[in-house]
């Protein structure tokens, strides 16, 4: 004030004294003060001085003083309305004839030299109080040289609600007087403030108030409008500015209407979070100044300051999938948002990552700016990321699914909200596994070449999942590496299938089926089988002592209970693995005997009956033939035992190609380290080994070695490295062979071959065709004592063997292939 005293601006103090403090959504503070506020200093109501001291308490105290000395000639009658939350102050002077007459008795009976207020209530009721009591109730009362000021909140106890031409008003009717001896100074006052919210119609704000507010002109006989002006932020705007901003001010005989397009200059959009949902509002502080003249007052100025906030407009973020499947990278955009929205984190699968962490992981999260102060965010993430869900569908088709949750904050208060999204992209990129099958005397084998689904696959034989543990428990052979799966199952296993046609001229037909399933969805993506015939001599045995032994197998009857198998007179079997064994004397179990020429024949039948079925669903006839008369001739003699020798047989070649880290061949790259990065011209040291063999009479030789730009050994282009056991002489960097010395790891040096290759690249139009190269070799296994005995073992460059004699027989089962992992240039 004029004496330097400081008053804290509390809400009640502001209402009573003509101050307004408004804090917007950005936490910015607007301060308004009436020129007639409590502590403004005026000279004849023409010149005003207002000193404001601002203290910021969150940091070190700062004091700022402003002196404002405007030259201002106020109208004799002014009504000012400012709407706020908390309650708003009102400055006014007005009168009504009825109010004057009703207040006179109260004024005459009042005390001397004291300001008093008489409030006019509904139904003609009056309520008077001293000015100091009115101040205690929240009213503000003040006088200047030429003005009487009464301020009240919208929700003051003595206020009334009144609808005027469809608009709700809050009004206060009062008379304020001062009594001296032989004199009463009495001023009747009235104020009417619109309290309805604005309308939001067709993308714009519409604010309508009556042109004539009856409580302010009651008793007058004439009304003449002088001017109607609009403005923003308590400042009037000229017509040029109004037109530029596309505002509309319309005045007719009944209403004054202001229209503001949403998003127009002068207001601002703001983001909000309501119940976890994102949306926006538009805010603008409107001003209306209406000046008129009537026969009571020379001039009346009616001022309304109305803060407008549009209703919450839900804006669900839109996720756009811009992914090009051939790039194998998700490209996703989310938006649009106002600039006060910030993406702070993302959740992909089980991981929650800040934006900095996501970008350091190789994800690419970027902010994208759009016109009209909008923005969005883009995300790029590879298909092969561990957090991407992969699902096999059918054939070569599978889907990649990105499950993501975006985490946002709205500034400045960091109000959080999230938005989930699911992006699914289908690609024909599946390389299905392939298999070959073969058998030996007792076992069925399947050799499966892995595709690119095997990292998520499970192998099943029947209903049994194939793992190293289950294979060992069941007595199966199993070898699984990064390129192949080999399974060997005995033909008597309960997981093999005996075909319905049973026994053919080659023996008993048995099938082995292997199913590969997607681990997560249990969808079959590989079904392989091998069928072979096995000798039946072990199924029926006829002994000289008159005993028969019959082994009955399940010939394609689903869910067969072997204990229900029986002979003709219900003799029961004993169960072993997947078979029922009957052992009985030919004179028991309903066995028939008959004679045919020189044979005595004993016959029986194994049958299987399903419950409730008369005819057997399974019938196996068995017979033993005994010669009635026979002469056996034995010749006695002796001979020396033959020298042990290796005889040809059928089996698997287990081969491996390793890449050494140096020419000492002491350390090798593991499967998990592929693809391996090498520079152009750097030697690669390869080693090929025959696995699982302890035969010192076998020797491994390289027949051909070549390189391809793709993992498939039959793909093109190709470059020959070793041709018919010789290094390619057309190569500028000829490969070299290295000797193999026996040590703790190398038990049989003849089971190894070592050579080098200088790193190169396939070129097309002088540009590298591919960054990855795969190496392949075909090998032969030979008799180490006589390699020239086979055509394939007589290669030109096989040391010391090229001029030995050759045989005319080729044993293809001694031939195999082996490949390396990818080497990246």
Automatic annotation (TrEMBL):
Superkingdom: Eukaryota
Keyword Transcription regulation included in the entry's annotation: no
Keywords of this entry: Disulfide bond, Glycoprotein
Coiled-coil regions listed: none
Entries under SMART domains matching the protein: ZP
Gene3D superfamilies per the UniProt record, alphabetical: Zona pellucida, ZP-C domain, Zona pellucida, ZP-N domain
Domain ZP: residue ranges: 541-800
InterPro entries per record: Ig-like_ZP, ZP-C, ZP-C_dom, ZP-N, ZP_chr, ZP_dom
Listed PANTHER family: SI:DKEY-19B23.11-RELATED, ZONA PELLUCIDA PROTEIN
Name of the protein in its database record: ZP domain-containing protein
UniProt organism field: Latimeria chalumnae
């Amino acid at each position: 004030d004029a004496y330097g005293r400081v008053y804290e601006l509390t809400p009640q103090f502001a209402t009573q004294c003509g101050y307004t403090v408004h804090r917007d959504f950005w936490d910015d503070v607007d301060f308004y003060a009436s020129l007639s506020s409590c502590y403004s200093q005026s000279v004849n109501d023409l010149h005003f001085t207002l000193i404001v001291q601002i203290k910021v308490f969150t940091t070190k105290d700062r004091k700022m003083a402003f002196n404002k000395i405007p030259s201002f000639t106020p109208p004799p009658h002014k009504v000012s309305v400012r709407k706020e939350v908390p309650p708003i102050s009102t400055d006014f002077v007005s009168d009504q004839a009825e109010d004057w007459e009703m207040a006179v008795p109260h004024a005459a009976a009042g005390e001397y030299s004291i300001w008093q207020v008489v409030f006019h209530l509904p139904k003609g009721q009056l309520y008077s109080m001293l000015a100091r009591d009115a101040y205690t109730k929240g009213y503000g009362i003040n006088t200047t040289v030429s003005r009487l000021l009464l301020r009240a909140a919208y929700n003051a106890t003595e206020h009334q609600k009144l609808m005027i031409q469809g608009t709700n008003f809050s009004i206060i009717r009062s008379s304020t007087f001062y009594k001296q001896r032989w004199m009463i100074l009495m001023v009747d006052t009235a104020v009417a403030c619109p309290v309805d919210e604005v309308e939001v119609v067709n993308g714009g704000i519409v604010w309508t108030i009556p042109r004539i507010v009856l409580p302010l002109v009651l008793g007058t006989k004439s009304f003449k409008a002088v001017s109607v002006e609009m403005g923003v932020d308590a400042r009037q705007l000229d017509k040029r500015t109004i037109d530029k901003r596309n505002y509309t001010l319309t005045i007719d005989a009944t209403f004054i209407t202001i229209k503001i397009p949403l998003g127009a200059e002068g207001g601002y959009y703001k983001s909000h979070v309501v119940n976890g949902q994102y949306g926006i509002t538009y805010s603008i502080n409107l001003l209306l100044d209406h000046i008129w003249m009537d026969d009571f007052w020379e001039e009346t100025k009616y001022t309304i300051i109305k803060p407008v906030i549009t209703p919450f407009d839900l804006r669900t973020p839109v996720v756009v999938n811009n992914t090009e499947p051939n790039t194998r990278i998700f490209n996703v955009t989310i938006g649009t948002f106002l600039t006060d929205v910030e993406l702070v984190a993302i959740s992909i699968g089980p991981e929650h990552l800040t934006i900095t962490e996501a970008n350091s992981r190789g994800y690419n999260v970027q902010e994208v700016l759009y016109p009209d102060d909008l923005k969005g965010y883009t995300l790029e993430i590879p298909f092969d990321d561990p957090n991407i869900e992969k699902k096999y569908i059918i054939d070569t088709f599978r889907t990649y699914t990105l499950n993501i949750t975006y985490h946002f904050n709205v500034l400045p208060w960091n109000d959080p909200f999230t938005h989930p999204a699911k992006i699914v992209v289908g690609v024909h990129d599946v390389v299905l596994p392939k298999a070959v099958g073969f058998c030996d005397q007792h076992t069925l084998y399947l050799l499966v070449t892995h595709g690119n689904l095997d990292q998520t696959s499970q192998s099943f034989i029947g209903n049994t999942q194939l793992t190293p543990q289950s294979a060992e428990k069941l007595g199966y052979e199993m070898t699984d590496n990064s390129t192949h799966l080999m399974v060997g199952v005995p033909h008597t296993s309960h997981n093999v299938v005996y075909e319905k046609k049973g026994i053919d001229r080659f023996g008993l037909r048995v099938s082995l089926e292997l199913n590969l399933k997607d681990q997560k969805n249990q969808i079959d993506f590989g079904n392989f089988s091998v069928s072979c015939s096995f000798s039946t001599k072990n199924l029926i045995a006829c002994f000289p002592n008159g005993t028969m032994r019959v082994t009955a197998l399940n010939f394609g009857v689903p869910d067969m209970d072997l204990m229900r198998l029986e002979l003709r007179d219900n003799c029961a079997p004993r169960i072993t693995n997947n078979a029922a064994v009957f052992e009985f004397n030919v004179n028991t179990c309903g066995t028939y005997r008959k004679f045919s020429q020189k044979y005595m024949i004993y016959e029986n039948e194994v049958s299987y009956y399903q419950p409730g079925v008369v005819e057997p669903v399974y019938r196996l006839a068995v017979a033993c033939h005994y010669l009635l008369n026979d002469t056996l001739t034995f010749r006695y003699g002796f001979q020396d035992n033959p020298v042990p020798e290796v005889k040809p047989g059928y089996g698997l070649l287990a081969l491996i190609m390793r890449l050494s880290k140096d020419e000492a061949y002491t350390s090798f790259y593991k499967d998990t380290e592929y693809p391996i990065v090498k520079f152009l011209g750097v030697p690669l040291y390869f080693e090929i080994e025959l696995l699982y063999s302890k035969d010192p009479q076998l020797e491994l030789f390289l027949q051909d070695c070549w390189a391809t730009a793709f993992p498939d050994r039959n793909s093109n282009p190709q470059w020959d490295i070793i041709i018919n056991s010789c290094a390619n002489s057309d190569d500028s960097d000829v490969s070299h062979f290295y000797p193999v010395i026996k040590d703790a790891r190398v038990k049989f040096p003849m089971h190894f071959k070592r050579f080098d290759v200088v790193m190169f690249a396939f070129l097309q139009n002088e540009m590298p065709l591919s960054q990855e190269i795969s190496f392949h070799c075909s090998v032969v296994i030979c008799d180490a004592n006589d390699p020239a005995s086979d055509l394939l073992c007589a290669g030109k460059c096989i040391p010391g063997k090229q001029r030995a004699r050759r045989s005319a027989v080729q044993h293809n089962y001694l031939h195999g292939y082996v490949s390396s992992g990818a080497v990246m240039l």
